[in-house]
Design brief:
210 residues; mainly alpha
Length: 210
């Protein structure tokens, strides 16, 4: 899964300097950051120079792809998290179950991976990185969740008298409480179905069949 750094292979994601991005090089840089984090290097000590040396690239190679350490670090966290799911689109229930399953897997990963746990803790200590993470990772996921709920309202699967922002909080809240605020709580495989089915009973329009 790599793209050759060749002028004959233009990419829509090519940086402003006109050189195509290489997935292999980017992967080496991301893995270099992960290696340093696994060794216990604090975020504050992760200089671009140190990252470049670990990844076996020049500093200019990193700056062609990321404007700075904060942007790079957000991509590192995104690479360590579960990938965004493909929604079935068959019903609001099926889509919500898939979205909550991603949150469940993310919760399991943050519990089992010491590096992810440390990464999240370090991000929260850096307002700039935490803000970038929310803008590039959290907010797109939230927009997708709200889009699913709007479709559910349009299809008559959900009550339309409730704001979709509130509906989203109602659905994702239980999973976030269980996975983030209660790290000792179980995250069984059927938890997404339990949450969605329990809430849909009260959120279907009155005239809608159960």
């Amino acid at each position: 899964m790599s793209l050759a750094d060749s002028p004959a292979s233009p990419s829509a994601e090519a940086p402003a300097r006109g050189r195509p991005r290489s997935e292999a090089v980017e992967r080496a840089i991301v893995e270099g950051v992960m290696k340093l984090l696994e060794e216990g290097v604090p975020l504050a000590e992760l200089s671009i120079e140190r990252i470049a040396r670990t990844a076996g690239v020049g500093k200019a190679t990193i700056y062609r792809r990321w404007s700075g350490k904060e942007e790079l670090f957000v991509d590192v966290v995104r690479a360590a998290e579960p990938p965004d799911p493909e929604l079935p689109g068959t019903s609001v229930r099926d889509d919500l179950v898939v979205l909550l399953e991603q949150l469940r897997i993310r919760g399991l990963a943050s519990r089992s991976s010491a590096i992810l746990h440390n990464v999240y803790a370090q991000m929260k200590s850096s307002p700039k990185i935490w803000c970038a993470y929310h803008q590039t990772v959290v907010e797109p996921r939230r927009r997708l969740q709200i889009e699913v709920l709007r479709r559910g309202q349009l299809r008559g699967e959900l009550r339309t008298d409730l704001d979709v922002e509130l509906l989203n909080d109602i659905f994702v809240g239980p999973m976030l409480v269980r996975s983030v605020m209660r790290p000792e709580a179980d995250l069984p495989e059927d938890l997404p179905e339990q949450i969605v089915d329990a809430l849909l009973e009260g959120l279907r329009p009155v005239s809608s069949p159960s």
